[in-house]
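Per reviewer request, we include the raw input and output of the structure prediction for the construct analysed in the revised manuscript.
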Amino acid sequence: MISCEQAALICNKAQYREATFLEKVKLKFHVLYCETCSKFTKQNTAFTSLCDKADLHGLSEAEKDKMKAELEDIQ
């Protein structure tokens, strides 16, 4: 079995679609007997769903460079 720390890592990896099938299976078994990790997984899933619905995105490299230049001009 996996520890709660490992379960949290796998849960976070799953959020970004980086967890392997085996990791997901291990997480499912762990969540069956660990109430704390079960709650964490549900909250993490809900958070992921909200972020997907919000259509969030990061800044492009060009946008980051522009922001840096603007901040340097202020100083």
